[in-house]
């Protein structure tokens, strides 16, 4: 019984800790993803305001100076017909027309748009946000999900350490709790149930045992 209770407590504790950690991790990743998307929108809108008022050639020159050496965020400038005229991560001469891209179509129609998908150009899961400029061009910025995965991998060692510590504490606690539960039962004197300090729920059980023992002794004396 001791092993059963101890084992059950350990399993319940470990399961609870693992589920809690997974929920915390999912919540963290979700919150981080929301923040990254919000930051990307802000950066795109600010850059769009800076570019408004310039012609396409000037826009390309500005973007080239600002983002050609930047690798953590992708910047693309697209003409109103979908032709890519600037991209800081790919050769525009090899890129297909982007007019049918969801975020571009939304930007053309509504002034801004967003979408998430696997990029055929660089082969990664990407979040895109696009804004229509005053001259009709579309400014698009995108963030690879590898940044989010990097953050997850960064906190994983901390999560694992916490998990190990909590499990270790739970094992010790389970042992002491099992002892706390069983000691009063082990110390029960069957012949003095009324005086024994046991759980109320177990008193009927021990009373039946005492009655059975009394009947057995009575039967033995009658032989």
Word description of this protein:
- The chain is an alpha+beta fold.
- It folds into 2 domains: 2-12 and 151-222, no CATH class; 43-147, PAS domain (Beta-Lactamase, 2-Layer Sandwich), CATH 3.30.450.20.
- Helix content is 59%, strand content 14%.
- The protein has a 5-stranded antiparallel sheet with strand order 2-1-5-4-3, with helices on both faces.
- A hairpin with a 6-residue loop joins β3 and β4.
- α1 (2-51) packs antiparallel against α4 (146-186).
- The protein is rod-shaped and about 115 Å long.
- The model has no long low-confidence stretch (mean pLDDT 81).
Shape: rod-shaped
State which percent range the strand residues make up.
5-15%
What series of H and E elements makes up the topology? HHEEHEEEHH
CATH class of the largest domain: Alpha Beta
Q: What composes the largest sheet? A: 5 strands, antiparallel
CATH architecture of the largest domain: 2-Layer Sandwich
Total discrete domains:
2
**Fold-level CATH name of the largest domain:** Beta-Lactamase
Using only C-alpha atoms, the radius of gyration works out to 34 Å
Q: Decide which structural class fits the backbone.
A: alpha+beta
Strand order across the biggest sheet? 2-1-5-4-3
- Number-wise, the strands total 5
CATH homologous superfamily classification of the largest domain = PAS domain
Unreliable spans are none
Number of helices: 5
User: What share of the residues lie within helices?
Assistant: 55-70%
Distance between the termini: 36 Å
| Mean of all residue-level pLDDT scores | 81
């Amino acid at each position: 019984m001791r092993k059963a209770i101890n084992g059950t407590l350990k399993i319940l504790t470990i399961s609870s800790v693992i589920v809690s950690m997974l929920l915390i991790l999912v919540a963290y990743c979700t919150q981080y993803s929301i923040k990254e998307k919000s930051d990307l929108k802000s950066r795109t809108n600010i850059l769009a305001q800076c570019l408004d008022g310039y012609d396409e050639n000037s826009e390309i020159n500005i973007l080239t100076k600002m983002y050609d050496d930047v690798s953590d965020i992708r910047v693309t400038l697209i003409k109103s017909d979908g032709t890519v005229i600037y991209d800081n991560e790919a050769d525009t001469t090899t890129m297909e027309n982007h007019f049918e891209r969801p975020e571009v179509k939304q930007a053309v129609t509504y002034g801004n748009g967003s979408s998430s998908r696997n990029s055929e150009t660089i082969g990664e899961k990407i979040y895109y946000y696009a804004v229509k400029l005053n001259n009709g061009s579309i400014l698009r910025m995108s963030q690879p999900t590898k940044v989010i995965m990097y953050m997850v991998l960064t906190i994983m060692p901390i999560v694992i350490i916490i998990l190990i510590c909590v499990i270790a504490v739970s094992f010790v606690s389970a042992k002491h709790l099992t002892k706390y539960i069983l000691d009063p039962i082990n110390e029960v004197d069957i012949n003095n149930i009324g005086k024994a300090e046991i759980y109320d729920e177990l008193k009927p059980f021990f009373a039946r045992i005492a009655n059975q023992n009394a009947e057995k002794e009575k039967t033995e004396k009658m032989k």
